[in-house]
Write a structure and sequence with these properties.
single chain; about 475 residues; alpha/beta; Rossmann fold; six-stranded mixed sheet; five-stranded parallel sheet; about 45% helix; binds pyridoxal-5'-phosphate
Length: about 475
């Protein structure tokens, strides 16, 4: 029998919940993030599976302890994993390919419907939402703001799901044409794209204002599928386990380098290690928005303005999922976490006590690269290996090269996006304009559906209210 995991908040006061409620609530009521009350250990069920087991089977095996105890049965989970990963274009789902002969590998996480790693989590999370809501006879309205990748992955995950409506705001004229079309050409009746006359911060402020309007939020049962949702993190643990199994069967150590924004992806690698995967080193790759790198170097977390870069999905100042690591560094003292974060919000700066800082530095290494260095890495890897990387993946590789500690341990770089998502930056660096894969080849001929709205809360709320099918 699997002992079901229960979940506690990183801020120590919200009630403990089971998986179904953690899935639907996202943020805890005390403002914290949910984490498992103890880390389940990967056992022979996982390490003993045949080497060529399908990714979906491995996923169900790894995820079952986290999901058990609610409305999702083991059969449900098996079926949802099979469906979710059948939408990937590569039979291995997350192919691991060698880069040169020094033990560096690329873990290709971009073979899902929207060409970024977020599909690996969201394709399953969309199905889990629909399942849990249908079991309860409930509906939700998902709202979100996007500067690019998250919106399309969330739309693909929610399209045509009976229990969900999804409204995504993007800044008019400020997302790339590929990114916009990946959202607006999805014409499913429950998908609604809004081009806001403003920038990304305006879109985010509108979403926050809708959540802060309690009457509105409750009436439309607003929810979010952003990366603070535990279900997104845990589904990402699976591909780290897959890489460890591939390279050392679960016995030999493996290192990972991860291009990092909100700290969700690299936290999933950390979670894999807490579950017993032999992870030798974790390298955080940053762009110019390098708050985490500076923190590791200097021991002081200090907020700055966001600078736009060629890796826009990492243009983030405050990495929300860092709170989950902070909880571990503080020996799971939620009250201490809450105090540190309120100090950070008030002063824009935060430091850790020496033991926690030493622990952090023993767990993670980091490196940061500006746009010029990222372009140089893309050019070099294209010339030397004939491989075209997107700017985010290039930051992962550059970080791996700079920070790798042990040449005898395989170094796996998380390749988080397909180069065709960022054709201009890739072409400028390598001279190659990457083409879209076949399933998106006609993206530029497909009809678009979107509404344009002013940067005005009342106008946006009235639109959301009109399209939502949540019964009043
Ligand atoms: C979201 C994203 C990232 C950052 O991942 P986090 O989990 O937020 O650290 C990196 N690369 C790409 C392509 C992304 O879409």
């Amino acid at each position: 029998m699997t002992e079901p995991v229960s979940y506690v908040s990183t801020r120590g006061t919200a009630p403990e919940l089971g998986f179904d409620d953690v899935l639907l609530s996202g943020l805890a009521r005390d403002g914290g993030l949910y984490v498992p009350d103890a880390w389940p250990q990967l056992g022979p069920d996982v390490w003993g599976l045949a080497g060529d087991v399908p990714y979906a089977t491995l996923a169900a095996e790894v995820l079952w302890p986290f999901v058990a105890g609610g409305s999702v049965t083991r059969d449900d989970l098996d079926r949802m994993c099979a469906d979710a990963y059948a939408s990937f274009r590569h039979p291995g789902v997350v192919p691991l390919v060698p880069l040169g002969d020094d033990g560096t590998w690329l873990l290709e996480l971009f073979h899902g419907p929207t060409l970024a790693f977020k599909d690996l989590a969201l394709q399953l999370v969309g199905r889990l939402f629909d399942h849990v809501l249908s079991a309860r006879g409930e509906r939700l309205t998902i709202v979100g703001a996007t500067s690019g990748d998250t919106g399309s992955a969330a739309i693909e995950a929610c399209r045509d799901r009976e229990s969900l409506d999804i409204v995504i705001l993007h800044p008019a004229g400020r997302v790339s044409e590929v990114q916009r079309r990946q959202m607006t050409t999805v014409t499913a009746p429950n998908v609604h794209n809004v081009a806001v006359d403003g920038d990304f911060d305006d879109c985010q402020d509108l979403v926050k204002a809708m959540f802060n309007d309690i009457a509105f939020r409750d009436r439309l049962r607003l929810s979010a599928v952003n990366s603070i949702n535990w279900a997104r993190i845990v589904t990402q643990v699976v591909y780290y386990v897959a890489a460890v199994r591939r390279l050392g069967g679960g016995a030999d150590p493996v290192a990972f380098a991860v291009p990092t924004g909100n700290f969700g992806n690299v936290f999933a690698a950390y979670a894999a290690s807490r579950m017993g995967a032999p992870v030798d080193q974790l390298v955080i790759g940053s762009n110019t928005n390098d708050i985490l790198h500076r923190f590791l170097q200097r021991g002081d977390m200090e907020m700055r303005e966001v600078v736009p870069t060629t890796s826009p999905s990492m243009d983030i100042q405050v990495s929300s999922n860092f709170e989950r690591l902070l909880f571990e560094l503080d020996e799971r003292n939620g009250h201490l976490v809450a105090a540190q974060l309120s100090q950070f919000r008030a002063t824009g700066s935060m430091s850790l006590h020496a033991t926690a800082m030493n622990e952090l530095r023993s767990l993670f290494d980091s490196a940061r690269f500006d746009d010029g260095e990222v372009a140089a890495c893309m050019k070099d890897v294209h010339e030397r290996h004939g491989v075209v990387l997107d700017p985010h993946s290039a930051i992962g590789l550059a970080a791996a090269r700079e920070a790798r500690l042990n040449p005898d341990v395989p170094m796996v770089v998380a390749a988080t996006a397909h180069p065709a998502k960022f054709p201009d930056a890739v072409e400028a660096a390598t001279g190659v304009r990457p083409g879209l894969p076949e399933h998106l080849a006609d993206l530029f001929e497909r009809p678009e559906r979107l509404v344009s709205l002013p940067n005005d809360l009342a106008a946006v709320q009235s639109f959301v209210s009109d399209v939502s099918r949540v019964p009043v």
